[in-house]
Amino acid sequence: MGTPTAHRAVVAHSSFEHFRAQWAPIAHSEASKRALAALAAREPAVASLGRSDLGDLVDSVSGRERSLDPVSADRVIGSLVASQGLDPLIALAVVVALTPGLKVVARRLQWGAGGPWGHPEVFSGDLMTTAWEVVAAWSGRRREFMVPALLHAVRMRMSRRAEAWRAEMGRRSEWDEVGDTGGAEESAPEQLARVLNDAAGRVLSERDASIVYAHRVLGLTMVALAALTGHSRQSLDRRRARAEQQLCA
Questions:
Q1: Is 53 left (phi over 0), alpha (psi -120 to 50) or beta?
Q2: What distances in angstroms separate CA 227 from CA 1, 162, 215, 224, one per listed residue?
Q3: Number of folded domains in the chain?
Q4: How far apart are CA 209 and CA 159, in angstroms?
Q5: Boundary residue ending a domain (156, 184, 212)
Q6: What is the Cα–Cα distance from 52 to 241, expressed in whole angstroms?
Q7: DSSP string covering 49-78, please?
Q8: Does 203 lie in the same domain as 130?
Q9: Can you say how many angstroms the Cα of residue 33 is from the centroid of all Cα atoms in its chain?
């Protein structure tokens, strides 16, 4: 007999498949082709791929049919996030492209076990909605490591909901402290993310701030960062150490 977590995963997986099924008739539609044309006119990284519609573009950067390496795929998805204001379908394409990573987030959150969702399909639906909200909130933003950063932001939002719900159920705090998550204390990663955002371009270069953020906030290893950036682990380690010294000076 399977474990409860495994059962939740099987049930929730159907929600992801349902989302993909809704995307299928849109992926290669005329509207998708128009959105891709507008995007390619603004974003060289997209234009250089020569794809005909958003469906082909998503297949290039995500899933089993991905033809781009992780660094290139991340840059293309970053272009979609930055220029999603051109057409509503672009944000949808980003969420579809994030689906494999969202499944990893779901597993790490045990498919909503111990949270307010009550059923894995409710959890996975909320996860997809949260991903859409995060993507929309980041419209116009450009940054390195876009995909890990988006997934981290989604995971943090879902984790805070679960933590607030558990706090309420356990009567560990008053409702006004739990219900208004905006007034809650920042976690250490959130504090560091804010400090790095303030320091980027002033105390630190944008590049060095991104390296520290990816390693300390997103939890990427230096080996993973080396694979993503194409730079050696040793050189990234030196830049990270120097940046952290500057930040603490």
A1: beta
A2: 39, 33, 13, 5
A3: 2
A4: 25
A5: 184
A6: 44
A7: TT-SSHHHHHHHHSSTT--S-HHHHHHHHH
A8: no
A9: 25
Based on the domain organization, do 213 and 177 belong to the same domain? no
Q: Please, are residues 28 and 35 in contact by the beta-carbon 8 Å criterion? A: no
Q: Which domain holds residue 246?
A: 185-249
- pLDDT tens figures, 181-238: 454 566 777 778 888 888 888 888 888 888 888 888 877 777 777 777 778 888 888 8
Question: Which residues make Cβ contacts (< 8 Å) with residue 16, sequence separation at least 6?
Answer: 99, 102, 103, 124, 128
| CA count, 13 A, side-chain hemisphere, 33 | 4
Share of the chain above pLDDT 90, in %: 41
| Whole-number Å distance between alpha carbons of 246 and 98 | 34
**Neighbouring C-beta atoms of residue 198, cutoff 10 Å:** 12
Residue 41 contacts by C-beta under 8 Å, 6 or more apart in sequence? 47
Q: Are the C-beta atoms of residues 220 and 228 closer than 8 Å to each other?
A: yes
How crowded is residue 50: how many other Cβ atoms within 10 Å of its Cβ?
Answer: 9
Q: How many degrees, rounded to 5, is the angle at CA 70 between CA 96 and CA 242?
A: 120
Boundary of a domain, candidates 166, 184, 202 = 184
